[in-house]
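note to self: dont lose this again. the chain is below, predicted strucutre after it. 101 aa total, dont forget to put it in the shared folder this time
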Amino acid sequence: MEQSKWQVEKEELYKKIEAQIKDFDVRFKTLEAKASQFRDTAKAEIDHQLQALRKKKDELLEKQRQLKNTSGEALGIMKEGLVKAASDLKSALDQSIAKFK
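---
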């Protein structure tokens, strides 16, 4: 049976988000490595930012899981939320990594 347009779009979106999450994981490791180089206040600040970033990542993962149960018209709403969550996490990671270069 041929997949419908929304099924194809859903699958492509899922794969796109999955690739972004893998990239985010690499970037998390970069930030964690930076944290290990600092002490005291700077390390505490990085650790705090990492905790906030992990929360954003968990929210993105939850939205990605919800995508599997989405169909038809709801896909548009879900897509918008996923793209925004991924963009927000990317921006936050970029800022944190740049801050501690």
